[in-house]
Design brief:
The chain has 318 residues and is of the alpha/beta class.
Amino acid sequence: MIPKEILKKIRQIELRTKRLVSETMAGHYHSVFKGQGMHFDEVREYQPGDDVRTIDWNVTARMNHPFIKKFVEERELTLMLVVDLSGSGLFGSGDQSKRELAAEIASVLAFSAIRNNDKVGLILFTDEVEKYIPPRKGRFHVLRVIREIMFHQPARRGTDINCALKFLSRVTTHKAIAVVISDFIGQTAPTRREISAHLLREVVLSDVLKYASVTSLRQANRRHDVVAVQVMDRFEMHLPAIGRVLLKDAETGEVMEVDTGDPRKRAAFASKQKKAQHELGRLFRSVGIDSIQLTTDENYEIALARFFETREKRRLRG
């Protein structure tokens, strides 16, 4: 029996995302994530404006007026959500943690998928694969996926995206849409600031290549359509000026003290993070992966809409 408070939170996410999926995202999803090809459906009479390249000359010769072949898209796809549950995802400086935002983004994508009659699967990972739910269709299946993202208790707290991508290649033999939702903070990130009840991590993304290797990402993207969704918090990019604070790493347990009141340290931190984000973006581009950057204090609808519009324009040009 699932506790009532858990069911309530899942239902709240479903209600928040339902309007967005119905009004916008389901159509965008259908446009940018295409099926595996076209297959023959029927022959019908030619109408002005039809592509003459689709004329069926054999039928046309028999009937003495033009007929065309009609093709339909092989629509059914599989959406695999690959979600990072490492310790750094528990933080949120506002009302929503990074893990809660990840669940909401996954909800939008999953409900968009089932509205298009696609299957949805889930891989939860830390520095090992924690849980796998095979792809299926239906609302109740998606609600289970959301529940697991929000409430699964991981056995470990580290991060190893390579492990998750290798597991994806083993369990998903056909081409799928693979959405990797993570803060993309590796095991090299050194510190986390404990402030009241919150843990604020000092992110070092410049070493991301050590745990999200170019090889693993490139191999995954050759087989699947990989999209990286980076979920961050504003304080992971800009330190708040709150004086001397105790720092604790949520994944390693390392503790230290830092003076956030020093403007030079805050400026250096912000500069380092900006450079690291640039390097991460360059990594994604080098392996042909589209990416979305989201923060817990911003409206994710705008970022998602921008992503879909950009991708659709590129598809039409291509």
